[in-house]
Design brief:
By secondary structure, this protein is an alpha/beta fold. Helices cover about 30% and strands about 15% of the residues. It is elongated. The N terminus is likely disordered.
Length: about 240
């Protein structure tokens, strides 16, 4: 949780998103199923905090640096997929340790050079406080920039997916969309999604917990007692 902005001088307000003392003392780290740590930051579209995204999904993602080729390719891909994320009730929030002014210049450069407007906010994290808290700094890879961290946070503020890509490897935006849709499918139907699942395809039932359930699965024509596909109720 950030220090309240009115407790800081104007030139540093909202720049330090480091955890408060209680959070730091407990050694909070991002984990699946854990509540996301609150934050409030300056972005290219005004102040943003975790609380602003309650009731919607949020993809919080970090990139190593502005004005770099892989990061530029990622932001173009995210911008082109923005409407698809929105259709799934998910907002995007980018972040790096670059300044707000670098972000603003980079956004203008992308629009001028590639004809792509960036429709989502990019947060500055000059102090690296938020980056440290969310495990976006990996010293063995780089100690001065964030790796490509991605966090899907659900409307209740729970971390549902997290991943880290190295500096040299751009993310697969289609896979992030697929993962978001898969999580929403599981929430809605109670089904799990098998390998390479795509929206509209059948899911699989959780494994049986009793002999009777196992026998029922076999009788239902499953390939084996532990594996039974099923379409969601909405299909």
């Amino acid at each position: 949780m950030s220090i309240p902005s009115d407790a800081l001088p104007p030139d540093t307000a909202l720049r330090d998103a480091a955890p408060t003392a209680p959070e730091a003392a407990t050694g909070w780290t991002p984990r699946l199923g854990a509540a996301a740590m609150p934050f409030r930051v300056r972005t290219t579209r005004g102040e943003r905090g975790l609380a602003d995204y309650r009731s919607r999904w949020l993809l919080l993602f970090s990139h190593p640096a502005d004005f770099t080729p892989v990061c530029t390719s990622e932001f173009i891909a995210f911008a082109r997929a923005h409407d698809r994320f929105q259709a799934l009730g998910c907002d995007l929030l980018g972040l790096s340790v670059d300044s707000l002014f670098a972000h603003l210049a980079w956004v203008r450069s992308i629009e001028a050079g590639f004809g792509v407007a960036i429709p989502f906010p990019i947060a500055e994290d000059i102090s690296m406080g938020l980056a440290r808290a969310y495990g976006m700094l990996h010293p063995a890879d780089t100690s001065t920039a964030t790796v490509r961290g991605s966090f899907l946070i659900d409307p209740a503020g729970i971390i549902r997916m997290l991943s880290y890509y190295p500096m040299t490897t751009g993310r697969n935006v289609e896979e992030l969309l697929r993962t978001l849709a898969a999580l929403q499918e599981s929430d809605a139907s109670g089904l799990s999604t098998p390998a390479d699942w795509r929206p509209g395809e059948a899911g699989v039932l959780p494994p049986p917990l009793t002999v009777q359930e196992a026998a029922a699965r076999s009788a239902a024509g499953a390939p084996d007692w532990y594996y039974l596909s099923q379409a969601s109720a909405g299909r």
